[in-house]
Input
Amino acid sequence: MKTLKGSMTALVTPFRNGVVDEAAYQLLVERQIKAGTSAVIPAGSTGESATLTHDEHFRVIKLAVEAAAGRVPVIAGAGSNVTARAVEIARFAEKAGADGVLALCGYYNKPTQAGLIAHFTAMHEATNLPIVLYNVPARTVVSLSVETIAILSKLPRIVGVKDATGDLARVALQRVASGPDFIQLSGEDMTAVGFNAMGGAGCISVTANVIPGLCADLQAASLSGDHPKAVSLQDQLAPLNEVLFLETNPAPVKYAMSLMGLCSDELRLPLVTPTDATKARVKAVLRDLWLVD
Output
């Protein structure tokens, strides 16, 4: 898992007529790999995992593993507010051939830090896969503290964190608390360059669903120390990063991808299609980037 760096994509889950569009999904994985994406993440928040049935969740992981065929790591989303369910997903991911799991804090339950430690420790003991913690308090209400992550980082298979807090100071604090070998990945596209400058190793990106090549180039420039190029690419991507989060992810992302002919914009309730105003702004940015006519 030392190679887990650069631009990684939190994949959308395409639907058609209410079911997972398996053919479209595997084409999306292929597109990501050809564009230089360094890892793919199926069945995460962007993949609408909270609306997938158990069988669909397993199937999406399996589809990603099959399509990637060992060319890039597959880090399977294993988020649940039930620890036993998260363990079940992690164990399936290991059997399916995934290279690691992305483990979410238990949403809605509002666990304490002690509860979070117990949750992730149970996942750690249930599988031999590397685990990347996922800290996204905007969705889970609770946040992993720097101190809690430091405790968990001492477990041999908890190798890193996806930090979607937007708080760049945490990167430095986490390096001090967990050591430089603990992998820190941004979960927020707009601050990805700053995150790397603070000591991060890459970004698990939403925007890379739309324009993976440019996201990969940005990460390569940033991680190689070419800051002027990274900032220039960041400026190109900033308008897209903004419009893709005008409404709840992945609604704008799927709409953008539908305009590009990559998949349907179909979502599962309670998510709905973006407003006309958001659609207009998304389309305008795609035109500026020459992604649609």
In short: The domain at 6-224 is CATH 3.20.20.70 (TIM Barrel). The chain is about 45% helix and 15% strand. The CA atoms of residues 137 and 180 lie 24 Å apart.
